[in-house]
UniProtKB/TrEMBL annotation:
PANTHER family: EXPORTED PROTEIN, PROTEIN U-RELATED
Xref: InterPro entries: Spore_coat_component, Spore_coat_U/FanG
Organism of origin: Massilia violaceinigra
Stated name of the protein: Spore coat U domain-containing protein
Highest taxon, organism lineage: Bacteria
Spore coat protein U/FanG domain boundaries: 52-191, 232-364
Length: 367
């Protein structure tokens, strides 16, 4: 005798899963693959560009300081124009296309350059001679804006982020920039020499000292210095001009009644010439006589005259233009002001009519 005893069940028997095992396993694998595709897409969004044939390059003109006078009280400035060119390849050859605009971080690193040992300041060179200057990322010319890069203390590269001009097919983008240069006036510049009494070119080459690094990205901006790199050449050049300044102070003989004995007085001639620059100072014959060997003063409002002499030493040879037995004072510039005593002498002669007597003499520095 048999009896059927029903087996107890839990839950709703009508919802039991009786699908084939192979179908269940296939759907589980599909979920895993979808998750992996999401992770791959996220990785592409975070770091999209390096697997593509994307590239950046830089071109830049030279930094040229023209007509730099070391004895000028003003700073000298120059600048160079540059261009960053970045190209994006096709963002994704097959669907799904990348939807976020790809970007690129470009960092322009300016090294020390030749003829220099550091960037605080940089130096240009002519043989063993040096000229201090620096390069800047902007026109503030502040210490914080000195252009440089990794490994150069107190400097930073020029950095920019560019965005692809086209979402789906990429393209090329050009971004201009400016590099600023400054030569500060002061004692260091006044010490700069010219060579062979001629305008002298000081220079520095950055053929092996200027690079860019660039990283294509989407969401997270990378740090400067990562990614691909390329170098670009440029030069810095300054033409130091041979130059002098001259100034004088008046020479006063004072008041007197008779000229029975010589009357002496002193004035000064000051000259400032570029370091290592030879010079000569000439005095003309004056506005009255026009003769370097026979100068005269004329009475104001009259025609009477008084003979007098000028020299570079006490009762020395007449100071003139090198003609008629006169001499010129010679020297070599140091970059600083060199004062020279101008000696005046009124020799014994017949006493003229009372009054004020004067003459105007022009001092010329020849270099």
């Amino acid at each position: 005798m048999h009896s059927d005893i029903p087996l107890p069940t839990q839950g709703r028997a009508g919802l039991a899963d009786h699908r084939p095992l192979a179908l269940r396993a296939g759907r589980a694998a599909g979920a895993v693959n979808a998750a992996l595709r999401c992770l791959a897409l996220l990785a592409a969004l975070l770091w999209a560009g390096q697997a593509r044939a994307d590239i950046c390059s830089v071109t830049m003109s030279d930094v040229v300081f023209a007509g730099v006078s070391p004895i000028s009280p003003a700073d000298a400035y120059a600048s160079a124009s540059g261009n960053v060119k970045c190209t994006w390849a096709l963002l994704s050859p097959t669907p799904p296309y990348i939807l976020l605009l790809p970007k690129v971080l470009v960092c322009i690193h300016i090294g020390i350059g030749t003829n220099a040992t550091g960037a605080s300041p940089r130096t240009l060179g002519n043989g063993a001679n040096r000229l201090e200057y620096n390069l800047y990322r902007d026109a503030t010319y502040s210490p914080a804006s000195v252009a440089g890069g990794s490994g150069i203390a107190g400097t930073s590269p020029i950095a920019m982020v560019l965005v692809s001009p086209n979402l789906l097919i990429g393209g090329t983008l050009n971004a201009p920039f400016t590099l600023f240069g400054k030569i500060p006036a002061g004692p260091a510049l006044r010490a700069v020499k010219t060579v062979d009494n001629a305008d002298t070119v000081y220079s520095s080459s950055f053929a092996a000292a200027a690079t860019i690094t660039y990283t294509y990205f989407n969401l997270l901006t990378p740090a400067c210095g990562s990614g691909a790199s390329a170098s670009f050449p440029f030069n810095v050049q300054a033409t130091v001009v041979n130059n002098c300044n001259i100034s004088t102070t008046p020479l006063h003989f004072g008041a007197g009644s008779v000229l029975s004995g010589p009357v002496r007085a002193q004035g000064s001639v000051s000259v400032q010439c570029v370091n290592n620059n030879a010079f000569q100072i000439a005095l003309n014959g004056g506005s009255v006589a026009g003769a370097v060997g026979a100068r005269q003063m004329r009475r104001v409002g009259g025609a009477e005259r008084i003979n007098y002499q000028l020299s570079g030493s006490l009762d020395g040879p007449p100071w003139g233009d090198g003609t008629l037995g006169t001499t010129m004072l010679s020297g070599t510039g140091t970059g600083e002001v060199l004062p020279m005593i101008l000696y005046g002498r009124v020799p014994v002669q017949a006493s003229p009519r009372p009054g004020d007597y004067s003459d105007t003499v022009t001092a010329t520095v020849v270099f």
